[in-house]
Design brief:
Elements lengths: L2 E6 L3 E6 L2 E6 L4 E9 L2 E9 L4 E5 L2 E4 L8 H13 L1 E13 L8 E12 L12 E6 L3 H10 L3 E2 L4 H9 L2
Parallel strand pairs: 4-9, 6-11
Antiparallel strand pairs: 1-2, 2-3, 4-5, 4-7, 5-6, 5-10, 8-9
Amino acid sequence: MTVETVWAGKYIKVIKDGTWEYVSRARGIEAAVILAIDDGHVLLVEQYRVPLGKACLELPAGLVGDEEAGESVLDSAGRELEEETGYRAETVDSLGFFHSSPGMVSEGFTLVRARGLRQIGDGGGVEGENITVHRVPVANIAAFVAAKRAAGVAIDVKLLLLLGAGMLAN
């Protein structure tokens, strides 16, 4: 089978492998997703996502290697946590690598846990991101997500990490 790059941009490329078509990150860029729980509260971010045409509720996350070649996943995650939420982590450790939508994209992400959080700013991301930071009690996460969904906000699949136990209970 012939593997062919159909189109390539700055961040993604479309690949055709036989009859299969999928999207991949360009230039070896990776992603880090941050689970940041502080004093019984989880940090979530809400931002407009162009592909969805609306705001999306998510765990903080960011690209690794998009601006600084050789940046480690853990360093990038710490930087992104500060930019997006205004919180600095004392430690950041990896919880493993996961694939986000393996039937359509080859992209995966490293899930990291941030501990020892200290607020150092307001967050909100870099210019133009307009990120809203939510500090939500873990015990109220299901109700918070349901209210956001009812308000028309998209919900990122990675929030299943926080909802899973409650969804499995009868």
